[in-house]
User: What shape does this take?
Amino acid sequence: MSDYQIKGFAAYKSTYQKSVKEPEAFWDEIASENFVWQKKWDTVLDWDFSKPEVKWFEGAQLNITENCIDRHLETRGDKTAILFEPNDPSEATQHITYNELSERVNRFANVLKSNGITKGDRVCIYLPMIPELAVSVLACARIGAIHSVVFAGFSSTALSTRINDSDCKMVITSDGSYRGEKTIDLKGIVDEALQECSVVETVLVAKRINSDIQMKEGRDKWLQLELGAASAFCKPEMMDAEDPLFILYTSGSTGMPKGMVHTTAGYMVYTAYTFSNVFQYQENDVYWCTADIGWITGHSYIVYGPLANGATTVIFEGTPSYPDCGRFWAIVEKHKVNQFYTAPTAIRALAKESLDNLEGYDLSSLKVLGTVGEPINEEAWHWYDENIGKKKCPIVDTWWQTETGGILISPIPNCTETKPTYATLPLPGTQPALFDENGVELEGNNLEGSLCIKYPWPSMARTIWGNHNRYRETYFSAFPGTYFTGDGALRDGDGFYRITGRVDDVIIVSGHNLGTAPIEDAINEHPLVAESAIVGFPHDIKGSALYGYVTLKEKALSRNPDDLRLEINQMIADLIGLIAKLDKIQFTNGLPKTRSGKIMRRILRKIACGEVDNLGDISTLLNPEVVEDIKENVI
Ligand code: PRX
Assistant: This one.
């Protein structure tokens, strides 16, 4: 396997030190020795966080699919690249070899071309977790089209916003999707979204649930028919190192999602390197990440990272509770999964169920367990360690973000220690730092502050699509000269990092990043709502859940409050998606504001978390009287 895999603590130490002392030499060596390049780079790194501008491997030319597919064909052609496990356990698993994946990606790439897609065009992918999702991502990369995958749980409005923001010429979707016992009409959602999108010329529709859908003449085409007519080889487009590979939207503190732009060479090198190290993947291992490819975890650690290493990666279409809460473990046993990577919310949900769900499943193939997306609480960590890992599998609590492209802080199995609730140590190439609220870097250990990264790493997002200013403002202005993550963290006596949560207006619900502003905007669309504020409160499965304070217009007085609650949540589901629905809605006479009119979320957060006796000084508020009223009516 790859010779960039670290073995043992001493190797971690020396590798890390080299990556900090000589970052360019460090990445130069890794990139040279482990990938195929059409042309090598002229400079390893050129950067200036004040602009901000970051360029890795400038001058190099490559195609990421040659690295993820073609180069494996000689030695691993018959090896399973993708192991597809359908929603329905009685439907056969598909083993897609590297040879087959190559053919499917090449054909698909030719379909894109014959439908007028060329290098640099944006293609929106709105698909369930079926092989076509990974194949379409790779097909875009093959011809240099920029993919923008939108998680198939987003509503039609969220979809059209994303399609329009990056002017996608094509949408790839399916006739529907399976989710447990339900089916979802994805094509219907796309049709609705496209009423608001004028740039889309073609919709490719994969057949999955065989539902009776409308096909719009001249615009909609059945994917399978197109593939049948396409040739099985498509020459890979040669890309510059810094050509965009994809756009992936993430929530921000204003209504508009941020289209994070990831480029080609640095992203490839970093995701491949970290996949190999964090999961200690060995040649015949079966690796399974339960995330959806609609999120960054799926991009980096279902598709690109594993395939660049010639790994076998599982794609699971279903849910952890269908047909019962033993499904994950049935799949682990069936495919002898060696590395299992999931989210704390899934662990907490399964931990709540009876241990009978684990009964009879052989989990002895497991070697490494991973978590990602939100802080993992101590109880869930131990449940995972004891019941799934049988105390034999290191748990990698991987901290990273859509913006970072790859894992930055995480244990490395059998090299560095694990510690419950800690993401522990930075990976080679990552230089974390903590800052206090005055912008001063905190030196030493046993302290807490805002988590920043002081030096560029290869897979960092380079900009926000169409809005470089917002990129600078969001990530490089709070602590000039460093990248600000938006997270708080503490560093313990051993230098281990523990992520304490977001310090901005983003709330993580079941591992999904939700900006408060877009949700408030959605609520405020309701004709009877005057204003609203959203905060997070602790939830034993979701980690955090959403609490909404809503002030209604006078006209609403005659309405039944529970009906209004349903309507408000429906509004959110329509404009964003079900993931953003509120758990609690409290109607208020007003919201506490500063004299300059800013809503005091700090107070609202404390009330929602039950800390009503600890609100601090509220006398400087514009309207302190509303606080009493809110406290009395808290849900
Ligand atoms: O707050 C951190 C949290 O998730 C945020 C990033 O979310 P997203 O861009 O959706 O990417 C999630 C998958 C990489 C971070 O700013 N987060 C992610 N991983 C962890 C975490 N919080 C604590 N521990 C983690 N391991």
